[in-house]
Specification:
heterodimer, A: 307 residues, alpha/beta, Rossmann fold, Alpha-Beta Plaits, 2 domains, six-stranded mixed β-sheet, 29% strand, B: 247 residues, mainly alpha, 77% helix, 0% strand, globular
């Protein structure tokens, strides 16, 4: 079974509001698949249809080969779920939560090991209410990994976390993939999707507007690469003509920005560097600026505020 | 089965860690018992057909415990679990909603029983109360009364949209019930008009049944109480299951 998730023509409406429609995609075994989109684009509706928490109005959904509506019980034994918003009782201790949830599954990972892997060893006896946001999130990831699932759903997993906690959680998710599991996640951080996901679907107004690897999505944007550096003094007037890969050159004081042409094989940066050293020009702080997934996202979904 | 036991044990620990629920179920009724003891002295009272006030207080305060645990604690726990997404987290696991409800019933029932046992122990040790009834009859009446009341909590938690509104409705129900059912002071001392109102208060039937059985009256004298409470139990079970929502 290569496709862990298969979705065709998914549609879900709430009253007269169409949350998602015509959504089709598949998730392959062993990948981290990300779904990004503005608030209200339908990410959570989609993930909840996959989890069996919501019933689609139309379309075909198969998760681990079964219909989540019909076989929710068997599916819940084989999937790990982290919800966007959920809680445990305030006075429940970390170890008690893991111990209790272990009793729900026929087969589980060792929760004592999970405590260590998620850095919660010291918080073992802490009540849920006393945990920080990052610790709560790690506990929820531990609960999601508890059934030793083939597939893990992570909905907005790093929202509200500080950069340290976010990076630690990214490492955790990569670990999960390294153990052969498949991850389906939603996020509204483009950096998170770009760094973490093998493939990304961009959802807008309930429809998938793009789906590919982050690198391919960025290439498809056809935005040029830019080379930026500082020079002492002025550049020779002929400098731009000596660069076949450049379309435009901007100079502001000592700062130079060279815009490259699209679709060229040779990287602009090596042309620039060899020209600079060939002409004996001193330069500092040279770097290239690549378009990011965020640029792709904004070009596809527009810049107007949502909600 | 394993998850039911674990969940019940967990809920029991959480109940005892929650100061308000532990206080109102276990400590508050005892305080009232000692208060009655101090006020009434320990002599037989004609109003209670020769029973002492303290002997009437034990079954009456048991009715108070049933109300506090079944209506207040139960409503608040279930409404909070729903509002905070605790039930939703459970919904993502293979655990059945029945296990969640049964564990809650077991724990509230255990805590109510513990509250009653504390009253009986205090009554025996401090006031040497005389028990004229049949222990099994009292136990039976207690089980029926408790279970018939727990349903109200589940229904309130299921029907009310938020914890705050569930709490408000529970308060509105609890206070008149406690005052007019005879749980705190006997209906016999209230004006006749108010006594009529007490016939519409479900807790009145709990107080009548438990007091009667405690005093050794036969079940036959309490068919109305048993009928009303059985009806509440049936409605409670059906409506609790119908109104249960994960979110």
């Amino acid at each position: 079974m290569d496709n862990i998730i298969q979705v065709e023509g998914l549609r879900k409406t709430y009253g007269t509001t169409v949350a998602v429609e015509e959504v089709s995609f598949e998730v392959r075994a062993g990948e981290i698949f990300g779904m990004v989109g503005p608030n209200g684009a339908g990410k959570t509706t989609t993930i909840e249809c996959l989890e069996g928490l919501r019933k689609p109005d139309a379309g075909m959904v198969r998760v681990l080969g079964v219909d989540p509506q019909r076989e929710s019980h068997s599916l819940r034994e084989r999937t790990g779920i982290q919800l966007q918003q959920s809680n445990l009782p305030d006075r429940m201790k970390v170890w008690e939560a893991l111990d209790l949830y272990s009793s729900f599954y026929p087969r589980t990972a060792d929760w004592k090991e999970l405590l260590g892997q998620l850095g919660l060893e010291e918080k073992r006896n802490a009540p849920f209410a006393r945990l920080s946001g990052g610790q709560k999130q790690r506990l929820f990831i531990a609960l999601a990994l508890l059934p030793d699932p083939q597939l893990v759903f992570l909905d907005e997993l790093t929202t509200g976390l500080d950069p340290q906690a976010r990076h630690a959680i990214w490492d955790l998710v990569r670990d999960v993939r390294a153990r052969g599991k498949t991850v389906f996640l939603t996020t509204h951080f483009m950096e998170e999707a770009e760094r973490l996901c093998d493939r990304v679907a961009i959802l807008d107004h309930g429809k998938i507007v793009a789906l590919d690897t982050p690198a391919a999505l960025i290439r498809s944007l056809e935005t040029e690469e830019r080379v930026v550096f500082n020079v002492e003094g002025a550049l020779p007037a002929s400098f731009a003509q000596a660069l076949p890969g450049a379309v435009r050159l901007e100079v502001q004081g000592g700062r130079v920005v060279i815009h490259g042409k699209n679709g060229r094989q040779a990287p602009l940066v090596s042309e620039v560097v060899s020209l600079l050293s060939g002409q004996g020009i001193l330069f500092r702080d040279l770097h290239t600026e690549q378009p990011t997934l965020e640029d792709v996202f904004l070009s596809l979904t527009g810049r107007e505020m949502r909600e | 089965m394993k998850s039911l036991l674990k969940m019940s044990w967990m809920e029991a620990k959480l109940f005892l860690r929650e100061p308000a629920s532990a206080f109102f179920t276990l400590v508050f009724p005892l305080m009232y018992l000692f208060l009655y003891g101090a006020i009434s002295g320990n002599e037989p009272t004609p109003m209670y057909n020769g029973q002492r006030t303290i002997e009437v207080a034990i079954p009456s305060l048991t009715a108070v415990i049933i109300t506090m645990a079944g209506l207040m604690s139960n409503t608040m726990t279930m409404a909070t679990y729903r509002e905070k997404g605790i039930l939703r987290r459970l919904q993502t696991t293979p655990v059945s909603p029945l296990i969640v409800l049964v564990a809650q019933v077991l724990v509230i029932f255990a805590m109510t029983s513990l509250g009653m046992l504390l009253l009986i122990a205090a009554g025996k040790l401090v006031y040497h109360v005389h028990f004229a009834g049949n222990a099994f009859s009292v136990l039976g009446g207690f089980v029926l009364s408790s279970l018939s009341f727990f349903g109200i909590g589940f229904i309130l938690a299921g029907v009310m949209p938020t914890v705050r509104s569930a709490w408000a409705v529970a308060m509105v129900l609890v206070y008149p019930m406690l005052l007019l059912s005879g749980a705190f002071f006997s209906v016999e001392i209230l004006p006749a008009a108010v006594q009529k109102v007490s016939a519409f208060i479900p807790l009145t039937y709990v107080v009548n049944l438990l007091r009667g059985l405690w005093a050794g009256e036969p079940w036959g004298q309490h068919l109305l109480d048993v009928g009303v409470l059985t009806g509440m139990l049936v409605v409670g079970v059906v409506a609790s299951a119908k109104t249960f929502r994960w979110e």
